[in-house]
Structures are given as structure tokens and as C-alpha cells.
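Checklist before submission:
- one chain only
- standard amino acids only
- sequence pasted in full

Submission:
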Amino acid sequence: MVRLVFKNNSFTEGREESGEAVLFLDEATETGKLEYSPEIGLVLRRTARRQAESICKSGFLLSTGKRVGVGFTLQEEEDKIDERLLQEGHKYR
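Returned file contents:
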């Protein structure tokens, strides 16, 4: 299983725990699973999802020179918007 971390608006190989999202590519089942951090905003969530969809179509080139993810099916967490993002912003005076 390959683990890609979404940080600074792109996916990279890594074992770091801190990142806005994580994409797990399982070669045995040919699926990619996208998980989001609870702190990620809506725009970054959509950016990560678009990039993950692209990786699951064309693949990701690993540092070893191997390409993984070509033709994979993307599974992701339920697209639930966090309560803090639904709150009204500041009021104009």
C-alpha cells in the first residue's frame, strides 16, 4: 500500500502524520482511499479530491521510478462539511 500526503497543495510520498489529506493507494484491490484532516477547509478539500481523481486516472510516479494508481477507483470519506464552515462570518456594521 502506498501512502501519499497532501500538503502545500500537492501530494507527495511520505510517512508524515501532518497533512491536510492522505491518499492510500492499494495495488491489490486497485483502489485509492482519500481521507481528510478535520481542520481542512472546503477549498483545500476540493483541491485534494481533484488531484486524487487525477492520480487514480493517470497514476503517481514514486521515487523508485514505479508508477502506481493508473486506472484505480477512488473512494473517499463522506463529503460532509464541518459545522465551523457553515457558521456565518463577521457582520458588517
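Reviewer check: The first strand starts at residue 2 and ends at 7.
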